[in-house]
Amino acid sequence: MSPKEAILALNLLPSFGPVRISRLLESFGSAEKVLGASAGSLQRVDGIGPETAKIITSWQDHADPSKELAEAAERGISIITRDDPAYPQHLLQAYDSPILLYVWGEILPRDRYAISIVGSRRTTSYGVNVTKKITYQLAHAGFTIISGLARGIDTSAHEAALAAKGRTIAIVGSGLARLYPPENLTLAEKIAAGNGAVISEFPLHKAPDKQTFPIRNRVVAAWCQALLVTECPAWSGSLITANLASEYGKPIFAIPGPIDKPSSAGCHQLIRDGATLVTDASHIIDDLGELPFSRTMETSGKTEGPAPELPPEEAAIIAAMAPGDELAIDTLIATTGLPSSAVTAALFKLELRRLVRPLPGFRFTRR
């Protein structure tokens, strides 16, 4: 049995979470040794009682890792463990990080620059509009958008990220063979087709239930650089996700709404509790200080190069502007050879990305 199959077998066992499995791995050194351990030695691990030890010693009655791997491969789903280079670094830093991830699509190094967006399943037109506006701006600025593929705000966030030609990660509260909600299958397919990934830590055929969604929410909270709540009532699960993100040390942002609408009461509560009030993506970008386009990615101490790449027209304008230059639009048109309409549109997008700054007299300079 390979190390991945052994980890997968532990993840397939009923009633086993990442914290308990981590204790076992720490005690025995590897998943293979855990599966081969005696009931007595297993019970010496904190949190492992007789019933749990019995499940582990008879693991073959509960799990078939080779079958799970084969089905995942047939569905185009990869399975990555904590020691895989593709495993998200922010997530790895959480004490309760998933033992493994089922990935439909692809995780890229640039996805470490991510903002999670959450909110109510029951949205208003106001909530949908502000979510799409700010998500579009953030995705266009280069941030990967993380959400939970749920109805309502989650769906709006994923759709806006795709509309901005950005990347988005959907963390689901079910197995990928039991995608929930089913009406978002088409959206999931668009995400997985080169625009991000749909991800779960649950076995392929795990059905969603009241426990899987809070488990999913901790991944949404742990992966990101910051978390934004766009609309939610006072009793929303989004507040739990925000609290989790705060425990992980992530900055929390919230969008205010009409003071007489219960649909925004949760956001107002977060703001009273210290979340940063935002009405535009620039507030989040300014607080974070740096943009993905302006940073050099460093993973495991190695330089990966700039991420992500600018679209061709925007890249041409940046190449034409040396640091300190203050160039008029006519100069940029002549230097790049681009039509005036293309230069104007690209400059607007570069402003959103915080890569250029407008000056009086329709001149621009690099930030």
Number of domains: 3
Rg on CA atoms, Å: 23 Å
**What is the mean predicted local confidence, pLDDT?**
90
Please, how many helices? 17
Strand-pairing-aware structural class: alpha/beta
What percentage of amino acids are in beta strands?
15-25%
- Assembly category: single chain
Helix content: 40-55%
Distance between the termini: 54 Å
- Would you identify the CATH architecture of the largest domain? 3-Layer(aba) Sandwich
CATH level-3 fold name of the largest domain: Rossmann fold
How many strand units?
A: 14
The low-confidence runs, each spanning 5 or more residues with pLDDT under 50, are 295-307
Inertia-based shape: elongated
CATH class category name of the largest domain = Alpha Beta
How would you describe this protein?
The protein is of the alpha/beta class and 367 residues long. The protein has 3 domains: 3-65, DNA polymerase, domain 1 (Orthogonal Bundle); 90-288, Rossmann fold (3-Layer(aba) Sandwich), CATH 3.40.50; 312-366, Orthogonal Bundle (Arc Repressor Mutant, subunit A). Helices cover 43% and strands 16% of the residues. The chain is built from 17 helices and 14 strands. The strands form 3 sheets. A 9-stranded mixed β-sheet has the order 1-2-6-5-4-3-7-8-9, sandwiched between helices. α11 crosses α12 (237-247). The longest helix is centred in the middle third of the chain and has 16 residues, at 125-140. It is elongated, with a radius of gyration of 23 Å. The protein starts with a helix and ends with a strand. Residues 295-307 have low confidence and may be disordered.
